[in-house]
Amino acid sequence: MKRVLLLLIILMTILLGSCGRPAERASYNLSRSADSFEIPRRLIVLNLRANDVIFQMQGNFSISTNSDKELVVTGMDENNNLYKHFIYLPHTEVTYIVEQIAPASISRFKYELRFNPEMIIPFDIIME
To answer: For 85-94, how does the pLDDT look when each residue is reduced to its tens digit (9 = 90+)?
Structure first.
């Protein structure tokens, strides 16, 4: 029983101690919401050498980069259809801008823990 209580105290200390500044929490929550297709964004890909717009996209999408120097854009339309786009980013000739185009109602204090139920191993706590 004492071990379980000690473990809970340590866990709560770690969780509460890692709160960070409100701006960091808000930034994290915005990124998380955008990656969940909840925030509309605008993406503009620019060719710096030719000073031209190569690609423009607007909607709910998530962005990431991969090891092949590609910008990976995963989008969702109003019918919940998913789309994936790859934009090659050679050295310094191409850059991109991502802009949030609508306000988001996220909390700068809220913590949300999400668990994949398939990954949790069931266990029993036996108290004597």
So the answer is: 888 887 778 8
Q: Is the pLDDT confidence value at 114 over 60?
A: no
Give yes or no for residue 128 having a pLDDT over 80: no
> Residues with Cβ < 8 Å from 2, sequence gap 6 or more?
none
Q: CB of 44 within 8 A of CB of 61?
A: no
Indicate the SS3 state at residue 51. Answer: coil
Contact 18, 31 (CB under 8 A): no
Is-contact 92 49, C-beta < 8 A? no
CA distance 43 to 97: 6
Domain ranges of the chain: 2-102
Q: Which two tokens stand for residue 122?
A: 């069931």
Backbone Cα Rg of the chain: 21
